[in-house]
TrEMBL record:
Organism whose genome encodes this protein: Limosilactobacillus pontis
All residue ranges annotated as the L-arabinose isomerase C-terminal domain in the record: 327-468
Entry protein name: L-arabinose isomerase
Any Pfam family the entry gives: AraA_N
Alphabetically ordered keywords of this record: Arabinose catabolism, Carbohydrate metabolism, Isomerase, Manganese, Metal-binding
GO cellular component terms, A-Z: cytosol
Length: 474
């Protein structure tokens, strides 16, 4: 995975001058202690930095402006230790252009019946202070996240962690650059979209480059570099020659590594973080990138087949949110419609991401009956079991919509000796019939991103931040 920036989240607590200097010192000390312990918990993927007690409209506005302009800040976390008159928050909150999490918590997780007095009540007013503050966020339609509960509890920290990953993906969405080698597949509708609209709402830059420019990179890769990549590949995966002659097998694997190194070099030099291919447009290439695309997805690049740049962007975006953990480009391939076995077998002609493998992938070489090119090497493996989310991005004349559902994943019931590709089986949690019908009514396509690392809530939070409609089927 390409390393993300060392993002941080700024944390402030709201108060006011009404209770005196001593109380404000306690407010600051408690908030600082929460930040310290959240960081020490090891449950948060990104650092929380305490930035002080907010008591005035001017101070809040200045703070929000600074958060906007600091590229290391991925978002803002607020908490109302005491009552903090929320008119003070209006201007700053309206100016904030980064994800906002309202941590509605209390310094102590209990009511100290024996010692509670008015000093305690003046200091610990989250119960009503957090509501006064939340009203303004609701009125401003800030689409902020609210995490509610004791800050020291693991489930609360997990919610903050999930949101942090999504907030970083939001920030990084504006850095996503997709290179299209070739156009979308001829006559296909669902992979189309408005690229300007995608840049406005999702931040993605989507460029076309002729395959001939890639071919120059492919031809420029040295045999020495391929030797080194071959050695590394053989140390990571099982090399299965099968019915091929040694020469044929090695030629195909080496050619895929040549494509892998060329694609990587091309993207790294030009700042791209995702790409598309199209089997209809391979002029000057010997093989459709199969193993090559799989290794790039493993490395964290986004990918979409048949020119599907929307899936390439989604793949990259969700890989960032998932820290490249078990998140893969997929296609609804074929169905099991028998009662009690209902499932979708997901795969692709070659390009299945090994980040979801449950066994050691095998490097195999077989003919590909589409595209009219040489036999491509590919990784063959079995997917995994567990809960996952499956999502797609569709374009309608009036904008984008994310369609998704939760799925229960399983391994295929049997081997497929005549279909040598990686495979993953899943069933929508609402049932295949119900899930598939609602997916199709919503206009969701057949290319999806399947993630074992992300939750339905994270999908909803991420696209709410991006102001893109989510139709999550549940
Ligand atoms: Mn496809």
């Amino acid at each position: 995975m390409q390393k993300m920036k060392d993002y941080e989240f700024w944390f402030v607590t709201g108060s006011q001058f009404l209770y005196g200097e001593e109380q404000l010192k306690s407010v600051a000390a408690d908030a600082e202690d929460i930040a310290k312990k959240l960081n020490a918990s090891g449950n948060l993927p990104y650092k929380v930095v305490f930035k002080g007690v907010m008591t005035t409209a001017d101070g809040i506005t200045k703070f929000m402006k600074e958060a906007n302009y600091n590229d290391n800040v991925a978002g803002v976390i607020t908490w109302m230790h005491t009552f903090s008159p929320a008119k003070n928050w209006i201007r700053g909150t309206r100016l904030l252009q980064k994800p906002l999490l309202h941590l509605a918590t209390q310094y102590l997780n209990k009511i100290p019946y024996d010692t509670i007095d008015f000093d305690y009540m003046n200091l610990n007013q989250s119960a009503h202070g957090d509501r006064e503050y939340a009203y303004i966020n609701a009125r401003l339609q800030k689409h902020n996240k609210i995490v509610y509960g004791f800050w020291g509890d693991e489930d609360v920290q997990k919610e903050i962690a999930d949101w942090q990953n999504v907030a970083v993906a939001y920030n990084e969405s504006f850095n996503i650059k997709i290179v299209r080698f070739g156009d979308t597949m001829r006559n296909v509708a669902v992979t189309e979209g408005d690229k300007v609209e995608a840049q406005i709402f999702l931040g993605w830059t989507v460029d076309y480059w002729p395959v001939s420019e890639l071919v120059e990179y492919v031809n420029g890769i040295s045999e020495d570099d391929i030797d080194a990549a071959y050695k590394e590949l053989a140390s990571q995966y099982d090399m299965v020659q099968g019915d091929n002659t040694k020469e044929h097998y090695e030629h195909s694997v080496r050619y895929q590594l040549r494509e892998y190194l060329a694609l990587k070099k091309f993207m790294d030099e030009k700042g791209y973080t995702g790409f598309t291919t199209n089997f209809e447009d391979l002029h000057g290439l010997e093989e459709l990138p199969g193993l090559a695309a799989q290794l790039l997805m493993r490395d964290g690049y986004g990918f979409g087949a048949e020119g599907d740049w929307k899936s390439a962007g989604m793949d990259r975006l969700l890989k960032i949110a998932a820290q490249n953990n078990a998140t893969a480009f997929m296609e609804d391939y074929t169905l099991d419609l028998r009662h009690g076995h209902e499932a979708i077998l997901g795969s692709h002609m070659l390009e299945v991401d090994p980040s979801i493998a449950s066994d050691k992938p095998r490097v195999e070489v077989h003919p590909l009956d589409i595209g009219g090119k040489d036999d491509p090497a590919r990784l063959v493996f079995t997917g995994r079991e567990g809960e996952a989310v499956d999502v797609t991005l569709s374009y309608f004349g009036d904008g984008y919509k994310v369609i998704g559902y939760s799925v229960d994943c399983h391994k295929p019931e049997a081997e497929t000796p005549h279909l040598p590709v990686a495979k993953q089986l899943w069933t929508p949690t609402v049932g295949l019939k119900e899930g598939a019908k609602r997916w199709m009514h919503a206009g969701g396509g057949h290319h999806t991103i399947l993630s074992f690392a992300l939750t339905p809530q994270q999908i909803k939070d991420l696209f709410e931040m991006l102001d893109v409609t989510v139709d999550f089927i549940e």
